[in-house]
């Protein structure tokens, strides 16, 4: 009996450590996508890029990258459950339709974000909008690339490299966001994005030589305040749960 209890505790501890590792990994992936995406998008416009539809498309153009974690997940489930039939897809028709509708709505948001990035400093646009999803414009992508590539300030090869990396980095953002929501909550995901805003602004100042104005400083302070408030709330809630657990254990022992 004691051996079973010890084994359960060890398994629970391993699962907790694994979950924490996956959460940290997803936070790292989210950080790369959330900071790299806007910077690469701004570089595209600074160096001669003009196509808003193309830049919008880039935010989902790297969707095949998603097949890598999905394949790994499928193979892992197949290996750990050899006696049961492994499902390739878990999404229901209702959820699929709802996701498609949300995708169309977010496509509008994606277009306006790209439009803002073409007109505003990356630090400013990042402070205005911290989340963005995607819109597909395949025909615009095919029609505009060759002519614009030749006029790109960094040269034609770097033009294609920038587009490719931009598409991939945006997928990091999506994967990280979904991963953090799955491992923790949507609130933590939103807080992570708010916390990353100072990093975006700092990188924009260092790499793109943008000016750091007073209103940006105020926005940064507010975003950091959001994170501190969330962290304080989480610590308070955790302590409350620990006290409740201890009192429950004492009550069981006494009875």
Automatic annotation (TrEMBL):
TM stretches of this protein: 20-45, 57-76, 88-108, 120-145, 157-181, 187-208
UniProt-annotated location(s): Membrane
Alphabetized InterPro entries for the sequence: PUP_plant
GO CC, one annotated term: membrane
UniProt superkingdom: Eukaryota
GO molecular function, one term: purine nucleoside transmembrane transporter activity
Primary localization class, coarse: membrane
Keywords tagged on the record: Membrane, Transmembrane, Transmembrane helix, Transport
Protein family per UniProt: Belongs to the purine permeases (TC 2.A.7.14) family.
Protein's name in the database: Uncharacterized protein
Organism this protein belongs to: Stephania yunnanensis
